[in-house]
Amino acid sequence: MGRAAGRRVRLLAGLWALAEIAVFVLVAGWIGVGATVLAALATTVLGWALLARQGGRALGELAQRAREHRPPGRAASDAGLVAVGGVLMVLPGFLGDLVGLLCLLPVTRPLVRAAVGRGIAARLGLVPAGPVRVRSARVPGATIPRPSGATRVIEGEVAGDVVDTGPRST
């Protein structure tokens, strides 16, 4: 990790900590210090319980995929989100609890997974392809055999830079 990235991480961690303190003070002013401390302890206990339950499920799914020699796919991202969510729920702070809860609950996890995926794709410069425009023209003899014996004609032409390498032998 470079110096600039390290500075950004420290800055974000500091801002997160300040936001957590501000929210804690606001909640304490609203419901009282004792109730706020109890709420923070309750969310920690809830975080441990959800981490145990959802973590077990996520790891079980990963193990099942490994036994079946299938790629981990969504199970790996679920396990990662459950781990991050569990850590956020166990650490003190209401903002972390909220984000952790979104990562831990199976109902909201796909939303978090999609948001993280879009963020990573944007960071890597991977932009989804836009609409594809195709010009169409009738091409005689362009058919594709179908299983039923009927053929389907596909009309069109290649629009773009195509290099013709000459006749092909089959």
Biggest sheet architecture = 2 strands, antiparallel
Mean pLDDT value: 82
Count the DSSP helices.
5
Order of helices and strands: HHHHHEE
Structural class: mainly alpha
Gross geometry: elongated
What is the helical fraction, as a range of percent? 55-70%
- What distance lies between the first and last C-alpha atoms, to the nearest angstrom? 53 Å
Radius of gyration equals 26 Å
Strand content: under 5%
Low-confidence stretches: none
Oligomer: single chain
Strand order of the largest sheet: 1-2
**Number of extended strands:** 2
Features:
single chain; 170 residues; mainly alpha; two-stranded antiparallel ribbon; 5 helices; 64% helix; elongated; UPF0716 protein FxsA; membrane; transmembrane
Overview of this protein structure:
The chain has a domain of 91 residues. The chain has 5 helices and 2 strands; from the N terminus they run αααααββ. The model has no long low-confidence stretch (mean pLDDT 82). Helix 1 packs across helix 2, helix 2 packs antiparallel against helix 3 and helix 2 runs parallel beside helix 4. It has 170 residues and is mostly helical. Strand 1 and strand 2 form a beta hairpin. The protein is elongated, with a radius of gyration of 26 Å. The chain has a two-stranded antiparallel sheet with strand order 1-2.
SSE map:
Layout lengths: L2 H29 L1 H35 L6 H17 L3 H11 L4 H16 L18 E3 L5 E3 L17
Antiparallel strand pairs: 1-2
Helix pairs in contact: 1-2, 2-3, 2-4, 3-4
In short:
This protein has 170 residues and is mostly helical. The chain is built from five helices and two strands, in the order H-H-H-H-H-E-E.
